[in-house]
Each structure stands twice: as C-alpha cells, then as structure tokens.
From TrEMBL:
Protein name listed in UniProt: ATP-binding protein
Keyword Phosphoprotein: no
Listed InterPro entries: P-loop_NTPase, T4SS_component
Record keywords, A-Z: ATP-binding, Nucleotide-binding
Pfam families: AAA_10
Keyword presence, Phosphoprotein: no
Length: 466
C-alpha cells in the first residue's frame, strides 16, 4: 500500500500538469495471435539482374532469376529441374523464360520439343515468330526431304562416335554390351573411319562391316573370323533398325546441310516420334551428343538446353551417362540444362536411379508446380524441401510454384505479358492449362509487369541487350 505523502503528491501533480502516465495491466496471449504486431517480413530475393519470372506470393516483390548471373555466387551449377502435373503452367513458364532470355544478345537456346498437335511441335508458333524453321525429325519423310543427323559426323570425335554407337545399341537392347559384342563394334567402327574417304562415314558402313568383318580384325585377337561375325550380329541387327527399320532416314546418311547452329533458337521437333517407344531415348542420345560436338563452343555465349519429356534421358542409364558428361562439360562453357519432368517418381524409381540422382544433384534450381499429396511428400524427401513447402505444393493453383534456388525457397506466381500471351497459350498447347480469363487482378499485374519487363529488357540488366 502506498504511503499518504506519495498519493497526495501524485494528486497535486495530476491537477497541475495533467495525467502524465497511464498504468495498464499486462496482456497474456499466444504467439499465433501476437504475430500480427510484428512488421511483415519476406525472404531476400535473388538480386535484380536477369529475367523477370513474376512475383513472390507472400511479399509481392518481383522475382528475377538468371542462372548465369547467379552461378558461382548463389548457384553451384546452372542447371534447372521443372516438376509438376500437366495443366499447372510448366509449358507457359518454359516459353516465356526462353523468350525473355533471347532478348539478350549473348543467349542461345536449343529446345527438344517432344509434344505437339496438328502435325507440328508445341514450339512451332514461337519459332515462326522468331523466323526460325524447326528441325523436324520424322521417319515418315526422312527418306525424301527430312532432316538427317549423322552419328558418324566427322565433327564428332572418333571416341564420341563410338560412345554414341554403344549407347544407341544399349538403349535398344535394354542392357549393356558384353565384351565380345563391344569388340566387334569397335573394330568395325575403326575400319570404317580409317577406310572411308571423300565422304562422311554412315551407319550403313558399320552394319556392312559387322556382317562382313575383315580378317585382320580376327587375327589381331587370335580368334576365328566366324566368331567375330557372330559377336557383331546382334549389334548389326540393332543398327539396322536405324538404317532400314522404323527409324530409317533420320540417322543413316550425311548430316543435312544448312542446319543453322548460330540461330538464337534451335528447335528439334520430335512430336512425330512415339514418346513411349524406344525411339525417343535413342533420338535424345543422338541429338545430345551431336550438339555437344557441334553446338557448344568456347565463344562466351550463354547457352540453354531445354528438354521436354526429360524422363526419357534420366530414366535410361546409358543416355543419362552421356548427358551427365554433357552437364559437367557444359558448366565450363556456359551451358544451362533445363529438364522438364511430370513426376519425380518416373525417374528416381526407374532403372537409372543412380544416374538420375547424379543429374538431380547437378540441378541447383528446382521449380515444383502442384502435385498430389503423396507425390509432393516424395518430391520433398528426394529434393530436401522444407516441410512448409511440401505441405503447400498440393494446394498450389495454376501458375504458382515453389522455387528452390540452392536452398532459397520461395513461392512464386508466374506472370505473362499481353505480348507473350498469344505465343504461350495456343490451341496446340493445350497439354497445359490455358490462361484464366477475366481475372482483373492478373490483367492489372501483367500490365504493370510488362512495363517493368520491357524496361529491364531494354538495358537495365548487366547483360548486353539486343
């Protein structure tokens, strides 16, 4: 109890000067309720140099991403994995990302377009807009006027040629070559390379030499010539499929003259190939190795290699090994590999689990669109996502994804400008959901972001702009 003098003094002070202090009882509450008194916070962004993806959902800040700007600082590798169910915006993200990257003068993109409708690939409209003719690989017209890629192209080293031949055969057979078959292939390839002059060696030469091996090949190993012929028979039958089977015409001749490897965008249209056949991984192996030796050069260009239906690569141990080497090699020469996959379970539980894990480890950027709860938990476990991110993946709406950039995890809404919209949402691209109609918030955002994107594309980036 206060003494009378203190009470009298406080009363006199209040009468003269007014009440100067208010005494309030303490309030007890939970942390969930008290969090509202804290100022809003958001995770730091990735910098302001690169291409605009959209906005971070919780803070509303613009989200800018560029693996070439981040490499060596925030990214140990420039490679990128995109995951998610169909209809959630993967296709729209890929296309706008490429279009925005191509505004920079030092960028070049190759797309393996495995999807399509109406007889053309999904990227056909964008290629037309940029004045690019897609490289359409089609066994139905290959013998007449189609495109050919020669696995024995002299621009590929002899070691690369032999490795590619082995991969083609192993993918088709579903198992590795034994020592005898490998020896028969090696001596046939060596003979063809050495004795073919004034033209490119072709697969027909290899098949012919496997069927009719030279005597010196047998003598070198002190074996009978009939044994060498028997060892190479299965190999010859597999390669014969590329020469005279359902894949004929695409790889059994000299490389087509006039393929422009200096174009800003190179589209390989694989939409005429059955995506579930053994032909697709064979095609991807040949295209990947051919690009490694003809396209990737030390010319200071930043290159993007985007592969749709990438499980054909990651799920085959033989093709995955080739691409694993390409990814390691490409980092020194400015290559960003973008793999688009529907389900992570397609690859981590497949025959190439070891190779898939190695490729996934190289992808320092992971973008995950909506998945079912079970798939989201599996994805979170494999990729090491935080628990909160795993929980929201099944609730994501189209156009919104979880971005994990080397541990920097944010939820990002992808935004599309009106100029990009007709190129991204087309009737032929309905494997992904179309843009929501009549969304005033989205329309306002895209209009505002369009201004920002155009400003950024016209010179505010650290890169040289066209």
């Amino acid at each position: 109890m206060r003494d009378p003098l203190s009470v009298l003094t406080d009363a006199f002070t209040s009468f003269v000067f007014g009440k100067v202090e208010t005494t309030r009882l303490p309030v007890r509450t939970s942390t969930g309720q008290a969090q509202a008194v804290y100022l809003p916070t958001a995770a730091p962004g990735l910098g302001d140099s690169g291409v605009i993806i959209g906005r971070e959902v919780y803070s509303g800040k613009g989200y800018i991403y560029d693996p070439f700007q981040l490499y060596g600082q925030q990214l140990p590798a420039p490679h990128w994995l995109v995951l998610g169910e169909s209809g959630n915006g993967k296709s729209a993200l890929e296309k706008t990302y490429v279009l925005r990257q191509l505004r920079f003068r030092d960028r070049q993109v190759v797309v393996l377009d495995a999807q399509g409708e109406d007889g053309v690939g999904e990227w056909n409209l964008i290629a037309q807009e940029l004045g690019i003719t897609p490289i359409r690989l089609d066994p139905m017209v290959a013998n007449d006027s189609g495109i050919r890629l020669n696995p024995l192209d002299p621009s590929i080293t002899t070691t690369g040629q032999l490795a590619l031949l082995r991969t083609i055969i192993e993918v088709a057979m579903g198992h590795g070559l034994d020592e005898r078959s490998g020896f028969a292939l090696k001596v046939a390839h060596a003979y063809v390379v050495e004795h073919t002059a004034h033209r490119q060696p072709i697969l027909t030469d290899i098949v012919e030499r496997l069927r009719h091996p030279e005597a010196e090949s047998a003598e070198a190993m002190n074996v009978d010539i009939d044994d060498v012929r028997a060892w190479g028979l299965d190999v010859a039958l597999v390669l014969d499929r590329l020469v005279d089977g359902d894949l004929r015409g695409m790889f059994d001749g000299p490389t087509t003259v006039g393929i422009d490897l200096d174009a800003p965008l190179i589209v390989f249209d694989l939409s005429h190939i059955d995506r579930n056949s053994i032909a697709m991984p064979i095609l991807m192996a040949i295209v990947g190795v051919w690009l490694e030796h003809t396209w990737i050069r030390p010319d200071r260009k930043k290159r993007i290699f985007l592969v749709e239906e990438a499980w054909h690569i990651i799920n085959s141990p033989f093709v995955a090994q080739l691409f694993q080497r390409l990814l390691k090699f490409g980092r020194r020469l400015g290559l960003s590999f973008v793999a688009v996959v529907h389900h992570l379970s397609d690859v981590v539980d497949g025959a190439a689990a070891k190779e898939a894990a190695a490729i996934l480890k190289m992808a320092s950027t992971r973008t995950i669109y909506a998945q079912k709860a079970d798939e989201a938990r599996n994805t979170g476990r494999v990729l090491g996502l935080p628990r909160w991110a795993v929980e929201i993946i099944p609730t994501l709406t189209p156009g919104i994804a979880v971005w994990d950039v080397n541990g920097n995890v944010q939820v990002v809404k992808h935004l599309i400008t009106e100029r990009e919209r007709p190129l991204v949402y087309t009737d032929r691209a309905m494997t992904e959901a179309s843009a929501p109609a009549g969304d005033p918030d989205l329309e306002w955002e895209t209009e505002q972001r369009a201004i920002l994107i155009e400003q950024q594309m016209n010179g505010t980036s650290q890169s040289t702009v066209a």
